Description:
Helix content: 40-55%
Number of domains: 1
Number of helices: 9
Structural class: alpha/beta
Distance between the termini: 84 Å
CATH architecture: 3-Layer(aba) Sandwich
Number of strands: 8
CATH topology: Rossmann fold
Strand order of the largest sheet: 3-5-4-6-7-8
Order of helices and strands: HEEEEHEHEHHEHHEHH
Radius of gyration: 21 Å
Amino acid sequence: MINYIKKFNIFIIALVILLTSSIPAYPILNQLQGRDHDYENTFSYLSKGPELTSGGELLVLGDSFGFLFCEYVERGVNYVVHQGYTVEKIYNEFLPLVEGNKYKYCFLMIGPNDFMKQTEVSAFKSIVQLIVNDLKSKGMQVIVTDYCDPDYNSNMTYSLSHYPLKCWQYDSAIKDVKRYNDLLYVEMRDLLNLYGRLPMDPVHPDKALYNPLLERVEKIIENDKILRGIN
């Protein structure tokens, strides 16, 4: 009887190992495009300049959303991104890395981490203005978006509903800075609702979102060039 129990236990353990080893690996943040990423480090790729077409004239500054954007789009773009960075960290650590008159446009992907950390909205808005001032002084037109609101993920919304400061307040601050500084604006909320989030990831949008988003960014850049008479 004892031997039968031992054999049964060994069978159960082997079955568990077999089942767990056969579970497919989902694309989570440290396993993208077959590469391992250490998110303790800042990821940057700043070699391309405005003399190159497509992504060469576009710079992306932001957090893990920005990183996924740069990972999944089909054309290479310049970026400086770091998971969990607030606008204060972006201002203090990223902007000194960016050369003047090298890129024509900057896609500024900000908001969610300040919401997560409940940055005072007035302070958030002030730092966004400082970031915009710096980028403009370096010859860039700034593009902002509305991706702070996590309505595309009901679990996320419910779990953060107790926060005193709400997502829409940060989006409103971004839109205020846009309005007062003649910034470009790309709509993203409908894409968030359309594509949802990465498997086994409660925050980040699915990889199918990023190429459509890049197409919108490039269309806005194209229209801006026409309006300003830029070749």
